[in-house]
Amino acid sequence: MILNRRNVPREEEKTAELASDVASKVIGALNFSPVVQQAEERRQTVLEAFPDSPMAEEYRELARRVLAACGA
């Protein structure tokens, strides 16, 4: 599972509980960022629109974690 933070109360706790309920685990979390909406407005990904942004690095790190979880 991936936590897409939206700045709501207890979101990390709720996500961990859900992962446990479905015999899964949280492999990453993405912080809320207005950069995501700005990229969407440009009809681009964050990596295309803002490749040097902290949010782009969060996506890169998430990709590394997903690949590691898949054994790649």
TrEMBL record:
Transmembrane portions of the chain: none
Metal-binding listed as a keyword: yes
Cofactor: [4Fe-4S] cluster
Protein name: Nitrogenase iron protein 1
Swiss-Prot/TrEMBL keywords: ATP-binding, Metal-binding, Nucleotide-binding, Oxidoreductase
Entry's EC annotation: 1.18.6.1
Family to which the UniProt record says this protein belongs: Belongs to the NifH/BchL/ChlL family.
SUPFAM superfamilies referenced in this protein's UniProt entry, alphabetically: P-loop containing nucleoside triphosphate hydrolases
GO molecular function: ATP binding; metal ion binding; nitrogenase activity
Entries under InterPro entries matching the protein: NifH/frxC, P-loop_NTPase
Keyword Metal-binding: yes
Source organism: bioreactor metagenome
Main EC class the enzyme belongs to: oxidoreductase
